[in-house]
Amino acid sequence: MPSTEEITAKALFALLHELNQIDNPLPARAAYGRVKERYPELEDEWTRSGRGGATAEEMLRYETNSLVKCGWLYRGTEGWEITSAGKTALRKYPEPGPFGAAKMAEYRNWEQQQTNFWEAERLTGAIPEGRWAAADDVAGIAKVTPARLTALLEADRPDGWRRVLSKEGHVPNTETRTHGDWLNSLRSEGLDNINGLVEAGKRLKAVDLAQLIHTTAEGQRAWLVTTDVDGRNLMGLWQSEGFCSLRAERLPPLPPGVSRDIVHAAVEDGYSSFTYSERSQRTTEFFAFLSQMREGDLIVASDVDTAYHFGRITGPPLFLASPGGLSNLRRTVEWITMEPIDLMDLPDSVTSRITSYAVVDLTECLMDLRALVGDGPKPESFALPDVTEELAEELLLPHDWLQECVELLRERPQLIFDGPPGTGKTYLAKKLASHLTGDRSQQNTMVVQFHPGYAYEDFFEGYRPGDDGSGSLSLVKRDGPLRLMVTAANRQPEQVFVLVIDEINRCELSRVFGELLVLLDYPREPVRLLYSPEESFTLPKNLHIIATMNSTDRSTVPLDAAMRRRFWFKEMHPSQEPVKGLLRRWLIREELALEGADLLDKLNDAIAQRDFKIGPSFLMRRIFHDSEGSLERAWTTQIIPALREIHVMDGVDPAERYSLRALRSTRS
């Protein structure tokens, strides 16, 4: 006797199969009849299962709720129909058992994230007519996956659901029978398409889209408002008369709390001569000022000389006459009596959000901002720990030399260990990073290795092939190691983060860093990003870069003077301390014979070219010292091959000149 779960799975499986056979919606009663034809034992098995007083038909009607939340079924006024995701599910799970298990997993996913999905649908319903949004952006704001979102929207069909497309402007669920109706519906709103591609100019940017779900947010918020209007600094006027303002001379008087749709329409009418980008920016700014700001919100006013003043909103928006319309849209403000704060002294969480917009939502930085004005506890700050004696003993390096590395990072958070191969640069970089990040080393340290093909798109952000939510491959913007580390460091400003770059000179650094190069000199001065031009970007104070550089390999790219001045350099060379005596110290600690250290000293004395001297790491393995002939093996397989490049042109055989026999016969 099958369980009720098995019966339900077989019935729903049969339902989707029947709906998949037809092109039109099927009324619920007719759908149940076709399910019984495909699954004739349904009613008998359901009755014998003893599942309460519900009939098999009532069970089926109720369980279709779960199919809707899976994104597999749409229940409309004309009947039921399978969705694009439902068709995919049938192909992926061709038997009732796996189908039922997958359905339960998808439904549990919806249950666990239902708050996020409701938020996504609310945001979808707020997209204005005649505009569209990318599923990636909506999903990112609501913190759900794009594929699940587009499936749910086709199944639930909230207001505005057809306005959520792939980021290129395609209908995301290409298998739906409503594909043609979908495009026609968009066309009726003024969203034309060419070969199914909706015009990109009417896409809402993520920064504008994010506003749509914050209109009913409770609690204090924070805002950045610029004082610069057409080159005039209004800060003195704002402080003397107790207000902040926007220039809105072409905007008709609108009530507080007005919808974004109405603001958009007013901007389209009054600012029709402006570019699309300018109109979109003004819509965002006016809507924030009119409907999202509230009494009690914290205001940060950016002065043109990079000084920042603080205040609190005390009244609703007002339209008042002003000379030239420079400040006709106002809110009263109680300015806080305190010295202005310089840009360089603002929290990283704030500077990373500064944009060219006249109004910027800083609510995510509220705790940091409240601490600045004395309304909250001062946030903890990070601190690089001093080097311990235990670390120095473990690394067999002088304590003072290691401590200097830490002191340099405190002054400027970029350090390069430079030297020939085998000097322990990478090992030291990782160990130092682990010490600096403490018990968070696994989470707060990342290691990357540069190579000749490495680029900005690999290191910071760029477009890579991925799933756009429609089941087909497309280019999706992905974060690289630096972007990921910056995000993590901004979220935890009290912790130390370290990015280790191995072989930093194996690629063209200007191509890898791009516009970020200036941040190595001025980490607190925002730059515009190549693939996110609407975003202002800075490097957080608690992110440190420790790199290694091979000074010998001729395949590497020399660092130019501009790049060199952005890093501290600590040389690690076999002919000078602390590297010179490292092998001998290690052999003593491991209680091994010292002949290897003596031979390495003789070898480096015999090598004329400084950059080709051999580092101790080649011989810092017990296997090369604990048996007869093991040192010979290390010499022939590790050291001699590394020396062949010296004598490529002179006919000298390194295996003969630098053999153990030759070195042993040399007097110390």
The helical percent reads: 40-55%
Strand content: 15-25%
Integer count of domains: 4
Characterize the main sheet: 8 strands, mixed
Mean pLDDT: 87
Question: What Rg is obtained from the alpha carbons, in whole angstroms?
Answer: 33 Å
Which structural category fits the helices and strands? alpha/beta
- Total E-strand runs: 25
Please report the number of helical segments.
Answer: 30
Shape: globular
Low-confidence stretches: none
Rounded to the nearest angstrom, the distance between the terminal CA atoms is 90 Å
Short overview:
This protein is of the alpha/beta class. It contains 30 helices and 25 strands.
SSE layout and pairing:
Layout: H1 4-20, H2 28-38, H3 42-49, H4 56-70, E1 73-76, E2 79-82, H5 84-92, H6 96-112, H7 114-125, E3 133-134, H8 135-142, H9 146-156, E4 164-165, H10 179-188, E5 193-194, E6 197-198, H11 206-209, E7 222-226, E8 228-229, E9 232-233, H12 235-241, E10 243-246, H13 260-270, H14 276-292, E11 298-302, E12 307-313, E13 318-319, E14 329-335, E15 341-342, H15 348-351, E16 359-361, H16 366-372, H17 389-395, H18 399-411, E17 414-419, H19 425-437, H20 441-444, E18 445-449, H21 456-459, E19 461-467, E20 473-479, H22 481-491, E21 497-502, H23 509-513, H24 517-521, E22 527-528, E23 536-537, E24 543-550, H25 561-564, E25 568-571, H26 582-589, H27 595-606, H28 630-643, H29 654-657, H30 660-664
Parallel strand pairs: 3-4, 7-11, 17-24, 17-25, 18-21, 21-24
Antiparallel strand pairs: 1-2, 5-6, 7-16, 8-9, 10-14, 11-12, 12-14, 12-15, 13-14, 19-20, 22-23
Helix pairs in contact: 1-2, 1-6, 4-6, 4-9, 7-8, 8-9, 13-14
